[in-house]
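User: I'm putting together notes for a lab meeting next week and I want to include a structural view of one of the chains we've been expressing. I don't have a solved structure, so I'd like a prediction I can at least talk through. The sequence is below, exactly as it appears in our construct file.
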Amino acid sequence: MVLDDLKGFPRNFRVLIASALIENMAFGLIIPFLAIYVVADLGLDEWMAGVVLAGYTIAGVPSMIIGGMLADKIGRRPVLLASLGLMSITILMYFFAYNFATLLALVLADSFVGSMYMPAANAMIADVIETRDRPRAYSALRVSWNVGILFGPVAGAIIVAAYPIKVLFVFGSMILAVAFFMNLIFIRESRPEKLESAIITFKSVMSVSQDRPFLLLCSLSAIFWFFFAQWISVLPVYALAELGVDEVEWAISFTMSAAMIVSLQLWITGKLVRLRRSVVLASGQLIAALGFGLIFFATDLYSLLICIAVITMGEIVYMSILSAVIADMSPEIKRGLYMGFSGLVQQMGSGLGFVFGMTLLGSMTDTSLIWLIFAGIGIAPIFSYAIFANMAGPSIDNPTPGVKDAIEGIS
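Assistant: Thanks for the context. Below is the predicted structure for the 411-residue chain, given as structure tokens.
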């Protein structure tokens, strides 16, 4: 189904889809085991693991803006290539981490270079894809990401069974190098010519923050990522320590989530694109929050898989429309900057979530209560999406007939 969808899209988008699949194999290879590596292999405390994971997110905050600004100033392609090439090097350097200080330094460097990629990639997609096709395009991109993540954890589990966890970083570096050369050979610049005369400065950030509907949407998505960050920080440590789940079983749960996204994302997008966007976003956040709350009742791998299925369904619903809304709200001349700003705010939410969640996990006597806390955090701002709908107006909140027609092919 994804391959059929790609036939009508420009080559740049098809290459981005393919390289995203390859790149996320590296992500899926490493991320499910990162918190375990920090705590079990390097012997760091839980709060240190939280700082490392938060450092990965926070270091990317200025990089998101820089990547978006550079994508507007010098072009999308140079930013994509620089990010992928440097990531291949920094991921390899994780192999040599031996204590908290070296790991944190590598995490900061890796996050900084890696976070430049998404603003440029999202801006390129908005450049080459019409408004009516953007929900389908961004959903196809998510499917590609998760096809990569499907294979990554399985390969990671096989590698971990035979070698030390740190060997994962060598394989991850090699995979990212493949994505770099694919972009180098096949990607063409997509930046509109009118941007050549645009002057992009850090003062532009203030103009983005003054776009009140856009700022509210960014803030609400940051809250989503604040509690959703526990999926790759607190949850793997909790699953191993409290539920008796081992590394291979955790990789299976991670793969199950990716399989759900691959099989359901495009179909669900086709159904939900007909609804008010504020309703879709609020519903996705509510479902994900309830899934985290259900972990309170989990006792083994099988009950945990049910919780993860609910969380993933919330993610699918939420992400079915978020990127398209951000793209539609971004002025063409500041498209990279808007993409970078939205990523910045979301990464800040994730970073704070990492620190808060891991610190809370290390300080609580009854660690199962943490899931009720995060469920409450997720549910609390649900009604704020109605405020966003009122501020943004029907042109953003209501799907246009063109979008409805374009999405028919999915359903």
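A couple of points you could mention at the meeting. The first helix runs from residue 2 to 6. The chain has 21 helices and no strands.

User: Perfect, that's what I needed.
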